[in-house]
């Protein structure tokens, strides 16, 4: 998503928070637009008068912002771990 | 079954398509960093606790849970909450506080491997085989439900849907291994919430808020207000005596079935094993307990709303009450399992409908992916490496893991077709739990705390317990025991538990125990306390330590039980 920060070694590490943030943001924007331009009387009847797409869209955009900001503020740091741990099933 | 066509428009398809691009994208990105079998099958033991905690919850939040729990909610109402507040949450806390140190601390790679170290190959083989078979069956259930949804939505024939869905799961797991499965589970969790929370709120809005729901449910002319309090839940347990019902729910559902499921099921435990430290592993189910106790509000409550709001569902329930479910199905074309779909069709506008469909598809695929990623680990390490081809280089087992994934997807397609023959999916699943998990829990808990328990006792207890569960199940099926609702499953599980304990104790007294030196990390009294802690880590603040956090969760779940009791 963003250019890798020089101070922290993000090193292109996969961060699921960016994925979650991006997906929720896309969903949020699409729903918000649908809520603004496509709120029909038929829909109002279904939902009991609430513009559900709009409100859900706004909620999703906020949630997405939380994830993206969180990932930005506390990026994954890669810590080199000693190799002997991985794959050693212990004594048998 | 009649087709329930959801009126999906291009905007819904767009949202679904975007979601699938993300699913496959995660598989593709997670693929970097897979170079050993541990990375493929256990995520290299590197994930933070919040990720594994959400995956822990999501792995169980598959088709069976969502459709099954909303179905049970539509049928019985609030007593369904027991599956979460008496069932899951206490068991998850117990797993994190008591059992996880043994699993993570002993460095085993799977639950059956723990079994092998503690009890040798007899119990191990029983455990590994029954687990592997169960996973294929449950993967099939998840796949079947996925196929049904797509079939109703797009009108695709079932077999095409099964193959396409299996292919998608296959591609992201063979690419990204457990990491891809776990990351997708976390993503799925949020999509599910984004779909079900608005569905619940809009549904509530339509029935006139919480008060409106209470009012309508109490005046439905059938079970009435009984559906609004979770206790004593006689309809759910099938015991007509309220005291027996409470005992049945607490012991049968809460203690035996749920502890058995959550503490020994490798699908769940695997998520915790993928975390980066013993502290994170213990926190996995404990943090997961918090979302878990809130999930029924967006799963069970929509079921209850559907039963009073959607005419087709109300009609089905009325005919079921006055005649029986088969007649009701014939006349209305729906069953309780359709509750959530019917509510979606009734209240969601296009747009949100797409999110909801994506959420359901996500849940079903993630459920299946969880089963398959647990299956391939047990198959590779516990069956293939242990009994078929030993002592090969790690690359070889990585390859086996990938082949096992492919094989499992193919088998799941066939088990999906079998799964279609059960009307209430909860019954089906409970039956499986009762057969496999209750005796497992008995054997584990006895073995972890009683150092004398012998290897022979391990497998004899398991086999005896499982057979006794099957026996009770057959008695119930043939009508010798008359227990409607979930009572038969509770009883079968409880019987299996007791039989397992009794047999294990008797056999132990006549066989030689394992030498104490081999029990370090496996039995409480033989393990130094330091084995259960992270070496060299500074003491974490209380809100990052397992026991205090579990305490908070316990208090919350008690409050929920009292408030909605």
From TrEMBL, chain A:
It comes from Brevibacterium permense. It comes from the Bacteria. This is LPXTG cell wall anchor domain-containing protein. The chain crosses the membrane at residues 20-40, 52-71. Keywords: Membrane, Transmembrane, Transmembrane helix.
From TrEMBL, chain B:
Pfam families: SSF. Keywords: Membrane, Transmembrane, Transmembrane helix. It is found in: Membrane. It is a multi-pass membrane protein. It comes from the Bacteria. The chain crosses the membrane at residues 13-30, 50-71, 83-104, 125-150, 156-175, 187-204, 243-262, 283-310, 352-379, 400-422, 428-450, 457-476, 488-510, 547-564. InterPro entries: Na/Glc_symporter_sf, Na/solute_symporter. Gene3D superfamilies: Sodium/glucose cotransporter. Its main location: membrane. Belongs to the sodium:solute symporter (SSF) (TC 2.A.21) family. This is Sodium:solute symporter family protein. It comes from Brevibacterium permense. The lineage of its organism: Bacteria, Bacillati, Actinomycetota, Actinomycetes, Micrococcales.
